[in-house]
Amino acid sequence: MAQKNQQFDKISPEMFKIVGGRHGDTEKLSDKSVSFWKEVRLRFSQNKLAVFGIFVLVIVTLLAIFVPIFSPYSYREQLGIYNAAPSAAHWFGTDDLGRDIFVRVWQGARISLFIGITAAVIDLIIGVLWGSIAGLAGGRVDNIMMRIADILSAVPYLLVVIILLVVLKPGLIPMIIALSITGWVNMARIVRGEVLSIKNQEYVLAARTLGANTWHLIMKHLVPNALGAILVTMTLTIPSAIFTESFLSYLGLGVPAPTASWGTMASEGNKALTSAPWRLFFPAFFISLTIFAFNAVGDGLRDALDPKLRK
Amino acid sequence: MLKYIFKRLVYILIALWVIVTATFFLMQLAPGSPFASERSFPPQIEAQLNAKYGLDNPWYVQYKDYLIDTVTFDFGESMKYKGRSTNDMIAESFPISLTLGIEAMILAIGFGILFGVISALYHNKFPDYLASTLAVLGISVPSFILAGLMQYFLAFKLGMFPVSGWKGFAYSILPAFAIAITHAGFIAKLTRSSMLEQSNSDYVKMARAKGLGKWTTVFKHTLRNALLPVVTYLGPLTAGVVTGSFIIEQIFAIPGLGKHFVTSITNRDYTVIMGTTVFYSIILLFAVLIVDILYSVIDPRIKLRGAKK
């Protein structure tokens, strides 16, 4: 004990030195203030996976637009070369009817992207209107509207979609109707949540006092503030719509022949797996890649928009 | 709590009624008839068949009969396979789907949590990148593609598993994996992010400070709290396993309920479609209810809506 005290006695102020930190400029702002969306963009661009996702989506979209236009073959043209392996003339080979798989893959990309994006946009429109009206009105209207949404979301989604497709006959428009008939509920819930948290803030009250009507409130105040959550939900809706489309096409309820769809191609390819594996491989690869890219972008957006992760 | 459960049961009933009614009217509108694929009958026989199944009644009589069928859960004879009742078909094939489903769920939860814990423990190190990449791949590759590839490489080429059919445990491994992998990926992602959130909290630091090992802390402290979001995923997981079975049973030629459902739709076998739809809906609706109740039991912070009023 005594020895320990002796040790402490030896400590003097000279033994300490300032290692940095205080230089008298602590009050100065180190950087210009960054706007919210600028910061979001910055954080998003630091996420390698998300940037890669954007890159993949741009490439897939460009190829989907231009390959069917410039290709020497059409997606329904039967070339008389059956189940040929990938070669210089047919980059992804041909299928059992002698159609060029490279063109069919990109024609399929058009269908998948079209279905995914349209379904997401329909979800967006219905969901935003339903959610913001319910949230703004409150009380009994809100209660009834959200109960309807509850019941719809309790209905098993794929069962309804499958049965609906049986009735409507498989095709592009029925597929989109089937996908969005229950898909908007999720969006409506998210928007309502955002609206409830925003609507009691003072600037909304001020806008109301100045005579803004409900439509103006929704479009000018609520939607811009809920934009982050809406954007993330939308990006994550697209891959699930693409997945559902290929799932249903695989079951034979998708877009009818001879239209190319990734799901139909994978389903036919699966049957020919032993003799012509490339017929499954190419559509399968691009379904997976596209779903992956959309998921990566959605996750990246969510992280970039999350105020808890702000630096 | 009781009040909450009662309220939820009422919702389930309404949802069931919506499903039953919607299915009925959709089937009325659907083109084609269950007898269309048979060789063309003389009109007398077709009329007789329609009379036997009550298809010649006006829609409100059919609707009433159908509602009674649903309440008593007796959907009558299949229109396609003579002499087999819908209930028998469900009773016969559901155990197969159930076995497959439970296996898939165990795989999904087990692998999902394992991968999630590994990537959280080695945050931003190699094991994390590996596990996260695998999880993302699992989410992105649709189950039916995975099933086709596994069937080709593991069963057909390497002969490690039977290619298709349902004659024992070995036959269930590939299909169960095919259904499970997407969900394992989701669970891994959920576990990872909630484990990371927990690992910054005081009680974890405390446990580590008092000298507990990395893994002991995980199993004794972190995991319990980190698994709450995973419990919410159990509802969607059930739904996913059911719908996954539609396609996977088709690919692996497993005589389960999912296969019956899909074939009954292509056959326009009304009684079987109705029966399986109602049956699936009941399972899914109750699965979600059970998960919600479970969630409030596990996490005391959560008060069920309508519980205290």
From TrEMBL, chain A:
An individual GO BP term: transmembrane transport
Gene3D superfamilies: MetI-like
Cellular component aspect of the GO annotation: plasma membrane
Membrane topology listed for this record: Multi-pass membrane protein
Keywords, ordered alphabetically: Cell membrane, Membrane, Transmembrane, Transmembrane helix, Transport
Top-level taxon in the UniProt lineage: Bacteria
Alphabetized Pfam families for the sequence: BPD_transp_1 (PF00528), OppC_N (PF12911)
ABC transmembrane type-1 domain mapped to chain residues: 109-298
TM region(s), chain numbering: 49-70, 111-136, 148-166, 172-191, 222-243, 280-301
InterPro entries per record: BP-dependent_transpt_permease, MetI-like, MetI-like_sf, OppC_N
Protein's cellular compartments: Cell membrane
Homology family: Belongs to the binding-protein-dependent transport system permease family.
The protein, known as: ABC transporter permease
UniProtKB/TrEMBL annotation, chain B:
UniProt main location, coarse: membrane
Topology in membrane: Multi-pass membrane protein
InterPro entries documented for this protein: BPD_transp_1_N (IPR045621), MetI-like (IPR000515), MetI-like_sf (IPR035906)
Transmembrane segments: 9-30, 96-122, 134-156, 168-188, 230-252, 272-298
Highest taxon above the source species: Bacteria
GO cellular component: plasma membrane
Compartments (UniProt record): Cell membrane
CDD domains: TM_PBP2
An example Gene Ontology biological process: transmembrane transport
Keywords: Cell membrane, Membrane, Transmembrane, Transmembrane helix, Transport
Protein family (similarity comment): Belongs to the binding-protein-dependent transport system permease family.
Protein name: ABC transporter permease
